[in-house]
Amino acid sequence: MALAPETSRFLRRILSVPLLVLGALACGDRGAGGxxxxxxxxxxxxxxxTLLGSDSERSGAAVYERENCARCHSQLDGPAVTxxxxxxxxxxxxxxRVGPDLGAEGHxxxxxxxxxxxxxxxxxxxxxxMPASRSLFRxxxxxxxxxxxxxxxxxxxxxxxxxxxxxxxAEFRRSEPEVAPPPATGRALLERGTLLYAxxxxxxxxxxGDGCGExxxxxxIPPRDLTAAHYRFxxxxxGEPPEDGDLYRILTLGTGLGSSMPAFxxxxxxxxxxxxxxxxxxxxxxxxxxxxxxxxxxxxxxAEGPAEQGGEAGxxxxxxxxxxxxxxxxxxxxxxxxxxxEEGPFVWxxxxxxxxxxxxxxxxxxxxxxxxxxxxxxxxxxxxxxLMMPAYGDALEGEExxxxxxxxxxxxxxxxxxx
Length: 419
Ligand code: HEC
Ligand code: HEC
Ligand code: HEC
Known about the structure:
It is a single chain. This protein is mainly alpha-helical. The protein has three domains: 5-166, Cytochrome Bc1 Complex, Chain D, domain 2 (Orthogonal Bundle); 187-281, Cytochrome Bc1 Complex, Chain D, domain 2 (Orthogonal Bundle); 306-412, Cytochrome c-like domain (Cytochrome Bc1 Complex, Chain D, domain 2), CATH 1.10.760. It is built from 16 helices and two strands. The chain has helices at residues 5-16, 19-25, 55-66, 111-119, 121-124, 149-160, 168-174, 187-200, 202-205, 244-253, 269-281, 306-310, 313-325, 328-332, 374-383, 398-412, and strands at residues 137-139, 145-147. It has a two-stranded antiparallel sheet. Helix 3 (55-66) crosses helix 6 (149-160), helix 10 crosses helix 11 and helix 15 (374-383) packs across helix 16. It is globular and about 60 Å long. 50% of the residues are buried. The structure holds heme C (3 copies). The site of one heme C has 24 residues, from helix 6.
């Protein structure tokens, strides 16, 4: 199903309001501006590329036609309706004149990424011949481009493509990526990583890894400063460094609709490890520590219990009680749709002082930045996320509670889509 209207309202809030706060904190004056978006699939059922669900998506289709996007883009390669998830073809490298097929573009990337790309394609994808659609933006506060209603409609349209047939990206985010065994470390691997990094990452994270790449000023949620190495989506407690497998996993998965970090599942495992090696080398703390396939943490049976499979009523009721007792609703809202920073009980900031824009929407697999698999949810609950999401490992009495809460949080996600 499409994101509910409340969800899109939430996304709109986290994408627009906090910019004012974020702007001043990182990378000098990033500028700030409202980011009006109707959100992916706003209103009504998303029914795919041809039958569009909302007024915004329909208007977006008209903008797509008027801007002649089809001159370079086909929309043939939609997701297969049945069978295992067949992900769209890897993003074309080297960049050719013809744009990639957009048949499964819906929910592949965040609105944030789409806006930055429409505004400055070659900044986000070096060498891209796609023309910049500057007329779809107006100057925002502090010089940050602000999407017009037409840009928001166009992005709503892009976010609907293919999803009526099957939401492959939601399925992708619900599965835990496999962490391949790491190759031998050394100069050659690091050099490979450095090359790939310059091509695929520096536009956002900066050549020196400081999070201040060319595109950074266009993004609502700032790219991570890889030199400071304060990571969020990991399996180790609080201030501890991430496991190598955590970095490999987030690189594979990206951060979905929640922020602009793309998914690099399409790179061969050795290249992903080369990038992990590069990323670690930016940080004095993580440098020269070799590469280790991680022990799966948090410990405990990782296999999905009956609670995940069938939404067993008893476990769900217990999970709901824990959700209430542990105060989850206080920061995520009763329905798990998330809260903007201003609504939360504290002033949320990460270890670098940058604002944490919101607690995150837990109701759609694509909106969860750290992944939507049972393990991803369990990691977030047990070890926390960044500075602001507390660790509940000690508060949960035993495996049964942990499982029940995990099952409840998983059940907040809309019913699985697809066949
Ligand atoms: C001159 C050809 C050309 C035109 C016209 C063009 N594009 Fe592109 N587009 C490309 C190329 C090449 C890429 C791949 C490189 C990149 O990411 O910029 C691309 C990438 C994209 C992507 C990213 C796909 C992905 O997920 O990797 C989207 C979305 C997109 N274009 C949308 C549009 C829209 C919307 C328009 C009309 C406003 C448009 N394009 C017009 C050539 C074009
Ligand atoms: C379009 C911009 C963009 C590109 C390109 C990009 N990233 Fe990111 N990256 C981000 C943003 C934004 C975040 C912060 C995500 C969040 O907190 O939700 C991030 C976060 C990360 C994190 C931290 C995850 C955590 O657990 O805290 C790592 C590691 C990372 N990126 C590595 C890379 C690497 C390696 C590449 C290239 C292969 C890359 N990124 C390309 C935008 C980008
Ligand atoms: C004090 C406020 C607070 C409380 C209480 C809280 N959370 Fe969170 N939670 C957050 C914030 C803020 C984030 C995002 C952190 C960030 O981006 O740095 C988050 C992130 C998460 C995530 C990861 C979201 C993603 O995008 O991947 C999950 C899952 C989650 N919380 C579940 C829970 C559950 C379950 C509870 C109750 C046991 C809970 N939270 C209690 C503030 C809170």
